[in-house]
């Protein structure tokens, strides 16, 4: 009896793992095109509530930036 229950539970877990996947139903990412004179700090201040330092870090992470240099016309993904 116990072995049957374990087998059923394991089969359910395996099926769930196979069929559970990202549906892509998340929100559409927002984008920002950098204008002359803008910095990551100013974009973070305008786009994130609270401490802009966290916003700058998130902008760098999301856009694969190794530093804080951005150029006009560059398109950034806003998380």
Detailed description of the structure:
With 79 residues, the chain is mainly α. The chain has three helices and two strands, in the order H-E-H-H-E. A two-stranded antiparallel ribbon has the order 1-2. 48% of the residues lie in helices and 10% in strands. The mean pLDDT is 89. The N and C termini lie far apart (50 Å).
Fold topology:
Layout: H1 2-19, E1 30-33, H2 40-47, H3 52-63, E2 75-78
Antiparallel strand pairs: 1-2
Helix pairs in contact: 2-3
Summarize this structure as a short list of keywords or feature phrases.
2 strands; 48% helix; 3 helices; two-stranded antiparallel sheet; mainly alpha; 79 residues
Put the structure in a nutshell:
The protein has 79 residues and is mainly α. 48% of the residues lie in helices and 10% in strands. The longest helix has 18 residues.
């Amino acid at each position: 009896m116990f072995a049957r229950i374990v087998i059923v539970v394991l089969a359910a877990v395996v099926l769930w793992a196979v069929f559970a996947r990202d549906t892509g139903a998340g929100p559409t990412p927002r984008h920002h095109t950098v204008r002359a004179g803008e910095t990551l700090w100013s974009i973070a201040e305008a786009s994130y509530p609270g401490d802009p330092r966290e916003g700058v870090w998130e902008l760098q992470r999301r856009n694969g930036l190794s530093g804080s240099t951005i150029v006009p016309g560059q398109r950034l993904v806003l998380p």
